Amino acid sequence: MSKKISTLAVGAKVRDPLSKYYGVPVGFQIADKNHAGYPANSTTLAAEKILCLKAFDAKESGGNSDRQNYGNNRYSLANIRQWLNKSGTNWYQAQHSYDRAPGSSYVWNGYNAYDTEAGFKTGFSPQFLAAILPTTLTVAKPTTDGGGSETVTDDFFLPSKQEVGLGSENGIAEGSLLALFNSNNSSRLRTCTPQAIANSNYTNNPSSAANWHWRLRSPNSGDAYRVRYVYSDGSENSDGAFIGDVGVLPLCNLSSDTLVSDEPDSEGYYTIQWNQAPTTPPGITVPDSVKSGKDAAISWAASTDPESDAITYQLDRWSNNTNAWTTIYTGSNTSFTDTGITTAMDSVQWRVRAKDSKDAYSAYTTSQAKTVTHNADPTVSGADANLGAVTSPPSRAYTVGDVDNGDTLTIVEALDGSEVRTIADAERGKTYTFGLTAAQFAALAAGEHSMTITVTDSAGNSATRVVTFSRSITMISVQRDAIETDAMAEKILISVRFLGAENNLTVEACNNAKDAAPTWETVTPGRKHLFTNKTKTATKWAVGVRVKLTKASTSDTIALYGVSGSYL
User: Fold this and answer.
1) 284-373, what's its fold?
2) How many Cβ atoms from other residues are within 10 Å of residue 497's Cβ?
3) Can you tell me the mean pLDDT for 19-48?
């Protein structure tokens, strides 16, 4: 488990096992949190112990005589500032015309020259260096350079007098007091690491248990060469910039969201836990067949993030016509429809990677290259149409075509999604008609319906024409088959279950249903009816019944549930 570094108390010890100086992980202390003037949401780290002994700046080649003899006390131009913020052995670059590298000939008695030593950043992990927040600092300028102050912006830096509780320099407040320090000298007492002592060639090195003096960035502004430092008893002092027996105790700022271990290790250090990238998407799915002018559905399996950060994805496409990867989608979805396959592309490929909320990326998952098929869609004449309400079976005449002469065409006609007719090897330009039969139309319920005409070529491309309509039912009419009787029926009783207006219901019956022109008589449902007809022309007597229910208005709903009856 882990927690934010900002939850640690001031003075708590932290380190990154991968960030080393003299081959040993650098131990830091929490010096402050959200310190005034420092980057927003930052936690300030100060080296727990003096890491090395070094000159502030080397003797100069000309100009001011004090600086020629004792080095330059202006922090913006100092060797130590440049060294703290560089990697590699070629870190030194002249900052002005008289500048010199801190070689043995240009530091006091040759003690602790560092012109050939790798820059301080060399041993730090890429994660640590990436997490550092550049910090803008106020520095007093020596009166030799005009006095006042100037600003520098650095990753690693030396503290000022003001920041360690020793007040302003020449009336200049170089920042504000860090929480790790106070006005008591004891808050500034520091010892050297064993490595600092072992790598120093000073003849009078301290023991690892002895407090030692360490540098500030503040000049002794009244002259050109002396630099302020914290003496071994925690008080303030100053000496020449070229003196190489003074300790270096650098500071830096990290984001307060940086994670550390829940508990300290056996030496009392909380371990910095760098953000880990999401897992690589475990798979990517692309179409088996890719066609120019057609959508390509791309999907991929989800990644996971060790810190449970929100994940987004970046999808790229490569094509032979550009020979380059182009980002076509970024977002949290695990699928995307690529609409950009053109006739200029003969081969395409896709890749996807995951990114967490801290901008850490996974590796890519890449698809196989796919050949792009260039084949035009077939066509169906006309346009989609809505016929509105119809009371008789609709029909649609159409032709099909395809510019790819080698393709064969197949037509499928469907009613409400169900296939009605298939025409194989359909002819280009021939007029076909899709029409509903009376029986098909009669079987449709009232409401919306669709007739679709789909033509598919032998390359798998298709086109569809859709005709929609609504069946409008204004009347329901049913007639019972004639029921033969041995004798003339004299009376009949009919019952009807229905939904609708009673005055729009017509019920009729006859006793000579076998005649060419039966004698239909109006019957009142639920009441006995006496037939008035006494004749027939057919061989047999027969009872007939018919019912008609009509809508009262276009918005009316009608239904006929059942007809029953008896006769004598």
Assistant:
1) Immunoglobulin-like (2.60.40)
2) 11
3) 98
